[in-house]
Design brief:
Blueprint (H helix, E strand, L loop, with lengths): L1 H28 L3 H14 L4 H13 L3 H14 L4 H17 L2 H21 L4 H13 L8 H14 L1 H14 L3 H14 L3 H13 L3 H15 L3 H13 L3 H13 L9 H14 L3 H14 L4 H9 L2
Helix pairs in contact: 1-2, 1-3, 2-3, 3-4, 4-5, 5-6, 6-7, 7-8, 7-9, 8-9, 9-10, 10-11, 11-12, 12-13, 13-14, 13-15, 14-15, 15-16, 16-17
Length: about 325
């Protein structure tokens, strides 16, 4: 009887705690990490051993690029549960992000810890896709003198392919693209599209084509992506390529106007950028008056973007 009474007394508190953490998680998902951070700190003050809250606080810090604070939270998780692969992965990720913003000399002192954390995550969980992706990128980006290795990068790309063919193909495409072998990168990105066909797969190939100056191929790939996924943002992407490379201007103009007419916040790219791309297209078409109309619309919507003002000055 006593156990039942205690359960009745404390179960509402447990539910309140769980609700608080769910609310914090939603705040992070809705891009309100600062609010989540404040709520989680209050929660942790009364629940110092709650690992879920600690992880969420680390995530909230990470979304704000407060890498030192995120590292501290994730280190607590690693120390508390050293057999949890994802804790090592997040710890390594936060350390890696810090390494990108500090001096190269200081970064060298923590690269070993980054590598160790990702390797531990991969060792603990043979199915951890994100840890293997991190190792693919890390081994490609590190200079050979401090442990970089294309062969090791391929090792984890092969492991990815066994777990997920799409991820394996994308990883190999990334390796070849990074190593300046665009033909092989194109081959594996196309294999990824054939295998999975996600927006990400198409996007990787489009960006490769843009990098290589292959505007026609980029546009064709975007059109194929739109045919499959019916995403309005593809209209913007097609217009962007047309504007950047001064090709297929009528198609670019049409697509950008379709994007604007069908725009919603879920499209991701602000309408002001579509206005800017239209201004570029009209400048290419020698219609400066129409170009001025669209760039002024862009500036009105996003006045803080300097590139819009710079472009307007070219019309004078």
């Amino acid at each position: 009887m006593k156990k039942i009474v205690l359960l009745l007394l404390f179960s509402p508190l447990l539910l309140i705690g769980q609700t608080s953490l769910l609310d914090a998680e939603k705040l992070i998902e809705n891009k309100q990490p600062l609010k989540a951070e404040k709520d989680l700190i209050l929660f942790i003050n009364n629940n110092s051993n709650n690992l879920q809250a600690t992880e969420l606080l680390g995530d909230a810090y990470g979304h704000q690029k407060k890498w030192d604070e995120a590292i501290e939270q994730y280190k607590q998780l690693v120390d508390a549960k050293p057999a949890e692969a994802n804790y090592h992965y997040k710890y390594g990720g936060a350390l890696g992000m810090k390494a990108l913003i500090i001096s190269k000399i200081r970064a060298l002192s923590i690269i070993g810890d980054v590598k160790e954390a990702f390797l531990k995550a991969a060792e603990l969980d043979p199915n951890h896709i994100d840890a293997r992706w991190a190792l693919v990128e890390l081994y490609m980006q590190l200079p050979g003198i401090i442990g970089g290795s294309k062969s090791k990068s391929f090792k984890y790309a092969n492991e990815l392919e066994k777990l997920s063919k799409v991820d394996g193909y994308l990883a190999k495409g990334y390796i070849y693209e990074y190593d300046k072998e665009p033909d092989l990168a194109e081959k594996f990105y196309k294999l990824a599209i054939k295998e999975g066909g996600s927006i990400t797969c198409y996007d990787k190939l489009t960006k490769l084509y843009e990098k290589e100056g292959k505007s026609t191929e980029a546009i064709s790939n975007l059109e194929a992506a739109h045919l499959k996924h019916k995403r309005n943002v593809m209209h913007y992407q097609i217009g962007k390529v047309c504007a950047d490379y001064n090709v297929q201007l009528e198609k670019g103009e049409f697509c950008l106007k379709v994007y604007i007419d069908n725009y919603s916040s879920k499209d991701g790219v602000p309408k002001a950028l579509a206005y800017y791309r239209l201004a570029q297209i009209y400048k290419h078409k020698k219609d400066k008056a129409e170009s001025l109309i669209w760039i002024e619309k862009a500036i009105k919507h996003l006045p803080e973007i300097e590139v819009f003002k710079t472009f307007k000055n070219t019309l004078n």
